[in-house]
Design goal:
Blueprint (H helix, E strand, L loop, with lengths): L2 E4 L3 H14 L7 E3 L11 E5 L2 E5 L4 E4 L7 E3 L2 H13 L6 E6 L9 H15 L4 E8 L6 H21 L4 E10 L18 E6 L1
Helix pairs in contact: 1-2
């Protein structure tokens, strides 16, 4: 029995395992391949058979699953698509994260974030039934209780812009971290523009 051990990203491992299942019993065509993450990095897979093992540690490298001693080889894009294309196409899109920044003391977006808002709406529109989480943040200027409320006001402001666009949503949630989760740690009562933000995750 061939054993797989390794640490590639979850979605890549899922694709590899789907290919293994699809090819089970189709000797000598059973194999596993390592695909890159979105940032180009990879994990690794150790394939162990009755007679030895092989390590797969770079993108596009593959190993046989139906030989006593697993053999490594370089899989072509055509081979990968023919074998794993269906599994890869069936994967849900990865979450997209946006940050919108605010002017001091309120819910007025900075000009750069006003320009970014259409990209947020386009991403949501491209995911029918989107699941969206919106978290408001503040800097440490002012009282913590006031900043908690302001963070929620900012999250609600962004939520309302998304809802007003009439997009189909499955779920949208808002919450505030106030000044408690800064992007840039500061001392108390510091006005830091990068902490005055809303973080949006679109799934």
């Amino acid at each position: 029995m061939t054993e797989l051990r390794g640490y590639p990203r979850a979605r890549r491992l899922a694709a590899a395992l789907a290919g293994c299942l699809a090819l089970a019993g189709c000797a000598p065509k059973s194999w596993v391949v390592l695909l890159p993450n979105e940032d180009g990095s990879t994990g690794r897979i150790i394939v162990t058979g009755p007679g030895g093992e092989a390590e797969v540690a770079r993108a596009g490298q593959a190993a046989t699953l139906d030989t006593s001693v697993p053999k490594t080889f370089d899989a072509s894009e055509q081979q990968i698509q023919e074998t794993f294309g269906g599994a890869l196409a069936a994967q849900p899109a990865l979450p997209t994260v946006f940050r919108l920044y605010f002017e001091l003391g309120g819910t007025q977006l900075t000009p750069e974030s006003v320009a970014l808002l259409p990209s947020v709406l386009n991403e949501v529109a491209g995911r029918p039934g989107a699941d969206i989480s919106i978290v408001g943040h503040t800097d440490t200027a002012g009282r913590a209780a006031d900043n908690e409320a302001l963070g929620l006001e900012r999250a609600t402001f962004v939520r309302d812009r998304i809802v007003e666009a009439g997009l189909r949503l499955d779920r949208i949630s808002t919450e505030s971290h106030g000044e408690g989760n800064p992007l840039v740690p500061t001392a108390d009562d510091v006005s830091e523009p990068r902490n005055r933000r809303v973080e949006i995750v679109v799934r």
